[in-house]
Amino acid sequence: MNGYMLTKVFEINKTLVVADSIEDAIRVYKLRSEQEIRDVCEVGSSGVIRDYYAIMAEPVVHSVRSWELTHVTFTGVDEWTDIEQLVDIQRRYPKVEFGVLVSRKWKENGTRYMSPEQVKELQGRGLRLSAHFCGSLARDVFGLGGFSEIHGAYDGMFDRVQLNVATYTDVAPTCIMPGPLKEVVIQQGRSLSLFEQCHIASGDHVSVLLDKSGGQGIDTPIEVPLYAPKVHVGFAGGIGPDNVIDKLKQITSSPNIGKFWIDMESGVRTCDIFDIRKVEEVCKKVYEDFLNKNI
Questions:
Q1: Phi and psi for 102 in degrees, rounded to 5?
Q2: What pLDDT shows up at residue 98?
Q3: Which residue has the higher pLDDT, 53 or 292?
Q4: Strands (DSSP E) along 45-146, which ranges?
Q5: Helix, strand, or coil here: 19?
Q6: Fewest CB within a 10 Å sphere: which of 41, 60, 86, 239?
């Protein structure tokens, strides 16, 4: 059994609720009394409910937000991006994170990259930054372990590193040691096998981005995994100004969700150039039409 998938499921008024304990379930749902408790229910890696756990309680009077949106990530800042505009966005919308695509072949890979010199200009500007390793750079982390390349070139710039390995099925992950990094994100598409192996090997600093689109802007259904309360989970796939509120509502309507973030790339580009106006539009909607209404 995978330890990080071990949790409890409660039924409250015919709704399945994932929580660490009875007390947490009652606290989150503001239940005024607990009248009957049956068996303990644990969900293993197979997702099969082996026993049954029921709480017969009075109707919910008021629900408390059990989720936390940690980052709104905009990936693919490029050579045309005005850094001063990024600083302004960050100041007004503190949950924003800017994702920097990093590849050894950045010159050959299109318009979504900054040069190494431009990336260094982001340092010391008060920006929340994540590095998104692509291609052989991401593969080498699995094969060799560690992040010596990013530590040497961009020491201290990034809190998080994402490994874009959703299309790889032939890599054998080593135990990832992030050094000063706070978090390592494993991008996964239809299969979660690499993430599961990394999480088992390296613990809670490994999180997952659920991304069947792979940065192509393909609108994919939101599927909240059963282990979401135990793991920091990101969602991507066709998110942009026109649907960001609907996507957030779909995510937060799940009783399984805990800490999460959203990531968008193609959805905030125009003619494949990072579009600060679309970034601003997303931020306004997230803060004014979603977060401010879900305090």
A1: -125, 125
A2: 98
A3: 292
A4: 54-56, 68-75, 96-102, 129-133
A5: strand
A6: 60
Q: Could you tell me which of 265, 281, 211 has the C-alpha nearest to residue 98?
A: 265
293, 79 in Cβ contact below 8 A? no
pTM more than 0.85: no
Please give the tally of structural domains in the chain: 2
What is the token pair recorded at 160? Answer: 């998080």
Q: Which residues pair with 211 in a beta bridge?
A: none
Same domain, 84 and 161: yes
Same domain, 73 and 104: yes
In contact, 134 and 168? CB cutoff 8 Å? no
Query: How large is the average pLDDT for residues 146-171?
Result: 70
Query: Residue 132 and residue 186: Cα distance in Å, rounded?
Result: 10
pLDDT digits (tens, 9 = 90+) for 66-87: 799 999 999 999 999 999 999 9
Q: By residue range, what is the domain housing residue 190?
A: 68-293
State the average pLDDT for the chain.
75
In terms of domains, do 86 and 225 share one?
Answer: yes
Phi and psi angles of residue 106, each rounded to the nearest 5 degrees, phi first:
-60, -30
The position carrying tokens 């080593």 is: 174
